[in-house]
Amino acid sequence: MTATPQPGSDGIVGDDAATDALDVAIRASRSWLRSLPTRDVSATADVDQVTATLSRPFPSEPTPAPEVIRELVAAAESGLVATPSGRYFGWVRGGVLDSALAADWLTAAWDQNASLLVGSPAGAAAERVAAEWLKEALDLPRESGVGFVTGGMMATFTCLAAARGEVLARVGWDVEADGLAGAPEVAVFAGAERHVTVDIALRYLGLGNRRTRIIPADHQGRIDAGALEVALARDERERPGRPRLVVLQAGNVHSGAFDPERALAVAQQYGAWVHVDGAFGLWAAASPAHAHLVAGLRTADSLATDAHKTLNVPYDSGFAIVRDAAALHRAMGADAAYLIQDSRPDPFARTPEFSRRARGFAVWAALRELGARGLREMVEGFAAHAQRFAAELGALEGVTVLNDVVYTQVCVAFRDDAETDALAAALMAEGTTWMTPSTWRGRRVLRVSVSNARTTPDDVTRAIATLTRVLGELRG
C-alpha cells in the first residue's frame, strides 16, 4: 500500500506528475505578467482568428494535460487584451494585486464550494473575516450582511431582492412565499444616469423597467434631489405608505460623480429603501481626501460594489451589502433535507448561488496585503492619475474635459464626434494604451478610467504622449 503524500509545514505536497500542467500554467502566467510593462495593450488577433486556432474535431482520445495547456497558451496569446497593464484605462476595470492573484490560483486548486459552512470552513472563514475588514475599511454599518457575488450587477440584484422582500413585508405581503402576482405595486425611483445594470436587476426581479420613475440628473449625472422630493411627495399623496425603492449611485460611469447626500435623506423621509450602486465609487470611503463624496450614502439600506474594479482582485468578485442582514437572509436563504446546516446562516443565504468558488480567499489576501494605508494610497493614486490626465489632455488644442474630475473618471471630447471616434479606433490599433469611446451629454467622448494598481506615473506619461502623437497624426 502506497503512503499518502503528506504536506510540509508550508502546506505544499511534494512534486509529482500531476503537477506538470500546473507548472506549464505557472510558467505561462509568469511570462504574461513579465510582458505587461512592454507589450501592447491591444490583442493582435480577433475572435475568429483565435477560434480557428483553437478549433479542431472533438478528440476521440485523451490528451496529456501539459500538452492541453501548452496548446491553450499558444492559441490564446494573440487574442489576449492586456487588461492588467498599467496602460489599460478602458471601461472601469482594475488590475490584480499579487496576493489576490496567488490566492485565486489556490482557490482553483483547493476547489472549495463556498456555499455551506460545513462544506468549506476555510472558505466561510475567509469570507467572514474579509467582510468585517471591508466594513471597517469603508466605514459601513457593522451589522450589515455581506454576500460575495460575481460583481456589481449581481450585487445590485441581490440587494434589490432583499429590498423588494422587506418593503413588501412592511405592508403585509410575503413575496418570497406568495410571489408578485397580486402584490402591492413597488414604486422604484432612479436617476436618469443610473447604470444599465440597475435596469437589468429590476427586470430580473419582475419590477419592470417601464415602471421605474426616472428622476432628472444634473450636468454631472447626479440625481436631482429636489426633483426626487417632488416625485416622492406626489407618490405619497396618491398612494400613502406605498412600498418604495430609491436607487442612488456612488460614482457615475462617465463623470465619476456621486449623488448628493440630501437625496438619501429625502428618500428616507418617505420610508423608501435606499440602494446605492457603488461599483467603483464606494471605495472613495477608504480615503480621507475623498470620503466626503460618500459621506451620507454609506448609511443606505444596501450597497453594491465590485472587488474586481477598485480593489484589484481577479474577476468574479463583488459584494452585496445589506444593512438588515435578516432581510438578505430571507431573500436568498433556503433549507433542504440534504444540506448540513446549523443555526448560523450559511454563505449561500447571502448570494443567489448554491455552487460557487470561494471568493473570500482572494478578497482576504488583497485586504491583508494592502491594509488601511495601502488601500488609501491606492485609491488616492487612482484619483491623482485621473487629475493628471484631465490637466494634460485638457491643455491640448481642441480638447475638452467634460466632467468635474472628482474621483477616477475623465471624459474627453475632441473637435467633433468623428475625430473622437477616429482617435479611439486609432489608439486601439496603435496598442500602447486603451481608452474606450462612449456618448455622454450628447457628445462622443473618450473615457479614461483609472483603477489599476499597476499604473505608474510613467504609464500615464506614455499614455498621454501616445494620445498626443496619434491625435497629431489624425489631424495631419
From TrEMBL:
Positions carrying N6-(pyridoxal phosphate)lysine: K309
Superkingdom of the organism of origin: Bacteria
Pfam families: Pyridoxal_deC
SUPFAM superfamilies reported in the protein's UniProt record: PLP-dependent transferases
Gene Ontology MF: a single term: aromatic-L-amino-acid decarboxylase activity
Signal sequence region: none
Cofactors required: pyridoxal 5'-phosphate
InterPro entries: Aromatic_deC (IPR010977), PyrdxlP-dep_de-COase (IPR002129), PyrdxlP-dep_Trfase (IPR015424), PyrdxlP-dep_Trfase_major (IPR015421), PyrdxlP-dep_Trfase_small (IPR015422)
An example Gene Ontology biological process: carboxylic acid metabolic process
Keyword field: Decarboxylase, Lyase, Pyridoxal phosphate
Entry similarity comment: Belongs to the group II decarboxylase family.
Protein name (Swiss-Prot/TrEMBL): Glutamate/tyrosine decarboxylase-like PLP-dependent enzyme
Natural source organism: Serinibacter salmoneus
